[in-house]
Amino acid sequence: MKKKDRIIIIDFGSQYTQLIARRVREIGVYSEVISPSLSLDRIIEMNPLGVILSGGPETVTSNTASKVDNNLFSLGIPILGICYGMQTSAKELGGDVVTSDIREFGHASISLVNSSMLFEGVNLNKGLLDVWMSHGDKVADIPKGFEVIASSINCSISGFQNISQNIYGLQFHPEVTHTNQGKKILSNFLFKICGCSKNWSTSDIIKSMVSNVQSEVKNEKVLLGLSGGVDSSVVAMLLHKSIKNNLICIFVDHGLLRIGEVEEVMSTFEALGIDIRMVDASELFLSKLAGVIDPEKKRKIIGNTFIDVFEREANKIQGVKWLAQGTIYPDVIESSSENHSSSVIKSHHNVGGLPEKMNLKLLEPIRELFKDEVKKIGAELDTPNHILSRHPFPGPGLGIRIMGEVNETRITILQKADKIFIDELKKHNLYNNLSQAFVVYLPVKSVGVVGDGRRYEDVLALRAVETVDFMTATWAHLPYEFIGKVSNRIVNELSSISRVVYDCTGKPPATIEWE
Predict the structure, then answer these.
(1) How far is CA 117 from CA 51, 114, 151, 418, in A?
(2) Which terminus of the chain is more solvent-facing, meaning fewer CB atoms within 10 Å of its CB: N or C?
(3) Is 477 a catalytic residue?
(4) What DSSP character marks residue 149?
(5) How far apart are CA 293 and CA 302, in angstroms?
(6) Which of 58, 104, 175, 334 is the catalytic position?
(7) Catalytic residue among 58, 83, 155, 340
């Protein structure tokens, strides 16, 4: 994909690293996440207009702490260190970092000490700026030639700068929404300090991707595993625009989908004139899952079986040279612990495995994009709104929303309960206000009373969250009357359910999905 101005983010393992990259792109500048181990020569080859050093879980006071090549600081490339990035900059340049007497995690207020281009146009409230801190160490002494630009009660050096060397540091996180005017601070770094221009727009991205696909694929056939989710659907729309009838899509029904999903996906893409072929492998998946309780085993069985089915179907099609996948940038980062300091969050089957087995050339046209970028591109490509507005649905489907053994009876019950919940959310105009909502089947029985009879049946949990980036999430405060109505419908319409509970746990400490 054609790139003009570029900002690189050196990843020290922060949970917010992806968020930094997204914020930079939202502002209109291309960003890319790299490992601290990447050589200085390679960084120079990338020709970035600026470098951001991310936060991280390590302590700079350790002898084994991650760091960058010290020569990076003498290249003249503008550098912004955030949290750990600020601390490692200070230490490498001769300053001192110590363990804080008082650790800061959460909201804090800073005052601005000396003028800085980072804070130009930032409005203060009674002389203070609300920010988000997350640190156990702090800079005790700044390097020679630096000056303090921000301070808080518990952290007297909350920001510093060396204007002549174009090096800046912030102890707080401007990339999170909790920091007031954080986007303005990042914009100042990008435009006033780095001299970037806005060059990362939806229309530019689409033109570049279409051109790349056409020049790479030429007149060869491409196979795409289409799930009906946002990522693979947008890839289908992009490839159809680029190569028309040379695209063939395979939709695998593993029996763990929601009610009506097979019919909806097939009819949607058939109506768009896209060649889509459905494979019903539900009995095979259910037989493989029989008696399995462990969630990781479920994921592996479903993933491996999907690969087997897809490979079998692909071998029936002659002349296919390419395998297209809906890999997006977070998939690449999360699955590449060898290249980044952050730990592997989850293993994505579409980031490896399948291409080697099938001996096809790999095509991943949206692998440099974040989810919100994919949705914007999908909208411009006229992807049906009911596809783009769908809440995320896990690859293993309902298999990881059923706690304990997966069987046909439980799948049917969960499908019906989930439809009741989603239908009511849409009916009450609540669905589009939520980031994700679903029902979980619990391995618990509870006593209930129906009419004059005693019922001892299973329990379901309702889950609904609100989030900007899915890295953190808050539980949705749905109206009590609404929750009560959904609960009553489920218990009344599904005789095998005796109780419904509502999950009011955020992320962290919980994950969004239960398994």
Answers:
(1) 16, 10, 16, 51
(2) N
(3) no
(4) E
(5) 13
(6) 175
(7) 83
- Cα–Cα distance measured from residue 85 to residue 87, given in angstroms and rounded to the nearest whole number: 5
Q: Look at residue 333 in the predicted model and tell me its pLDDT.
A: 63
- The CA–CA distances, whole Å, from 242 to 235, 236, 251, 344, 373 equal 10, 10, 20, 33, 19
Mean pLDDT for 404-429 is: 97
The answer to whether 173 is a known catalytic residue is yes
Residue 344 has pLDDT above 70, yes or no: no
Res. 62 pLDDT band, cuts 50 70 90: confident
Peptide bond connecting 508 to the previous residue in cis, omega within 30 degrees of 0: yes
In whole angstroms, give the CA distance from residue 419 to residue 261. 11
CATH 3.40.50.2300 fits 212-388, yes or no: no
Question: What is residue 312's predicted lDDT score, i.e. its pLDDT?
Answer: 87
In CATH, the number for domain 6-193 is 3.40.50.880
| Residues belonging to the chain | 515
Domain 401-502, CATH number (from 1.20.1250.20, 3.30.300.10, 3.30.2040.10, 3.40.50.2000): 3.30.300.10
pLDDT band at 352 (very low <50, low <70, confident <90, very high): very low
Other C-beta atoms lying within 10 Å of the C-beta of residue 406: 30
> CA 335, 338, 342 angle in degrees (round to 5)?
65
Q: Classify burial at 295, counting beta carbons within 10 Å of its beta carbon; exposed 0-12, middle 13-18, buried 19 or more.
A: middle
Q: Whose CA is closest to 73, among 186, 167, 195?
A: 167
Set 173, 240, 340, 348: catalytic member? 173
Whose tokens are 């936060």? That residue is 55
Residues 6+ apart with CB under 8 A from 290: 405, 407
Q: Where are the beta strands (DSSP E) in 226-354?
A: 247-253, 276-280, 320-324
Both tokens assigned to 379: 């909208």
In the predicted model, is pLDDT for residue 292 greater than 90? yes
Question: Tens digits of per-residue pLDDT, 86-145?
Answer: 999 999 999 998 887 666 677 889 999 999 999 999 998 888 999 988 777 889 999 999
pLDDT score of 311: 84
Asked about 83 being catalytic, the answer comes back as yes
- φ and ψ at 373, to 5 degrees? -70, -40
